[in-house]
Design brief:
Length: about 190
């Protein structure tokens, strides 16, 4: 049944998604795109929309995939009520591991924060998180985001560089930079 498969996928994402949303992207893509619940283009769109909406990427994607996957897996489950049920299940399941970890491990971590073993665990997790975030960057470097021609790629890189420069070296609000980049992207492409 699709709901059990969704629960299992989002439990794995919740348990092994260290480092936040971008670090979870590779795992989310593997769990969601590979079974065919969404296309690569839809995944790219989810990432873009998740950046514009409140909340973490993992939770936003869980809500969206939970809504879409039942209808994709079976036309009999295409009614909105099945999508809403899927959204609720996936959203709750993806936050469940974090809730349990914070609830029970938080007290232990606070009590043993000076422990050499605990410091070693967190030191070991840092490079893993950096690798997962780098993996997310590579996943997003595809033709859906940068175009397929050298002209499109060049325009995308220039737009990204200008946006980064404005963000780093001016006091322009990031929301205005995002809106400006969106308008420029619409005009250029």
């Amino acid at each position: 049944m699709i709901y059990l498969r969704l629960i299992w996928s989002y439990l794995k994402i919740g348990f092994f998604g260290f480092g936040g949303g971008y670090a979870m992207l590779a795992l989310i893509e593997n769990e969601i795109v590979t079974p065919g619940w969404i296309t690569e283009q839809m995944f790219t769109d989810i990432v873009a929309i998740s950046q514009m909406t409140p909340g973490p990427i993992g939770i936003n994607s869980a809500t969206y995939i939970g809504y879409v996957a039942p209808g994709v897996s079976s036309p009999a489950l295409a009614a909105p009520i099945f999508g809403i049920l899927g959204s609720l299940l996936c959203t709750l399941v993806v936050v469940l591991p974090s809730f349990i970890l914070v609830r029970y491990a938080g007290h232990y971590i606070a009590r043993h924060r000076d422990s050499v073993a605990l410091k070693g665990v967190f030191s070991g997790l840092r490079p893993v998180v950096i690798g997962l975030i780098a993996s997310a960057a590579l996943i997003l470097m595809n033709s859906d985001n940068f175009g397929s021609t050298s002209s499109d790629i060049t325009k995308s890189i220039i737009l990204a560089a200008v946006s980064l420069g404005l963000s780093l070296f001016t006091k322009i609000h990031p929301i205005l930079i995002i809106i400006g980049a969106g308008i420029a992207g619409y005009i250029l492409f």
